[in-house]
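I have a small job for you when you get a moment. Can you supply me with one protein entry, sequence and fold together? It will help me judge whether the discrete encoding reads sensibly. Write everything out right here, beneath this request:
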Amino acid sequence: MNGDRLLNRRVIFKLHGMDPLDATVLKQDEAGYWIRGGTLVSRLDESKCSLPDNDVRYLEFNRIEWLRAPRQRS
């Protein structure tokens, strides 16, 4: 899936050993995504947080089993 098309969109992530959860993709780099909000953020390690008491987290590509973005409505 083209990473640029995921930016600023709500995405469903399936991480290894977890049920599918959602978050908004803010930014992508060579190793993963910065994500915000949704049901996934609270399940991720707070040490990979952008700022204290913030709901932005870093998610490495190697933790993702699959992901999908809901279809955009026309």
In short: The chain has a mean pLDDT of 87. The radius of gyration is 12 Å. The chain is about 0% helix and 40% strand.
